[in-house]
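wait is this the right file?? whatever heres the structure
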């Protein structure tokens, strides 16, 4: 059980998540980085619940309340949820929601030249939205900060979130004789 303040636990989680995403990006695995990022949003949506499993509604509520309200994107929470499903389930931009017309497909870009190229491919399609991958990361960071700040002012809710965070998995290093929690702040976590 962690005795760290709730804002520090959230900071550590988001820092480790972004470290993994950035490492994947640097190695040329940007799509896998997005999978990790969408998974982290799922995790925070779950932490935000008083009980039960994370759902599409919980994901979209967390995105709307914490991410899009602080760092708007050209897409909706529904678009992001559909993109999450598409990447996790089929490694494509197309999901059931986008096929049914309930969400737009997200086409991601990195640099301005790639945006120009994608814009030329999309060329007015209304079922597609072009989003810079970095902006999703920045919106995530803004969301985590807003979530943490909110929990600092609501003690009972913070305790509920802490109870869920206590269930998170942790890696423990036993090589030094004294069990130590591993953290990305020590290293990249690649030697596990």
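ok assuming it is, sequence goes like this
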């Amino acid at each position: 059980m962690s005795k760290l303040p709730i804002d520090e636990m959230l900071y550590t989680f988001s820092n480790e998540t972004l470290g993994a995403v950035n490492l994947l990006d640097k190695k040329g695995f940007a799509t896998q980085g997005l999978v990790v990022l969408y998974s982290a949003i799922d995790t925070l949506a779950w932490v935000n619940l008083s009980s039960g499993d994370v759902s599409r509604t919980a994901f979209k509520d967390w995105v709307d309340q914490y991410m899009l309200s602080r760092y708007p994107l050209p897409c909706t929470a529904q678009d992001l949820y559909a993109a999450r499903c598409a990447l996790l389930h089929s490694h494509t931009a197309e999901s059931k929601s986008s096929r049914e017309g309930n969400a737009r497909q997200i086409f991601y870009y990195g640099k301005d030249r790639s945006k120009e190229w994608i814009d030329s491919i999309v060329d007015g399609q209304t079922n597609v939205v072009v989003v810079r991958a970095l902006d999703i990361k920045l919106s995530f960071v803004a969301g985590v900060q807003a979530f943490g700040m909110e929990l600092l002012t609501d003690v009972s809710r913070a305790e509920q979130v802490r109870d869920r965070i206590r269930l998170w998995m942790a890696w423990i290093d036993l090589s030094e004789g004294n069990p130590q929690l591993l953290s990305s702040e020590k290293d990249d976590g690649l030697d596990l």
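The first strand starts at residue 105 and ends at 109. so i think its the right one actually
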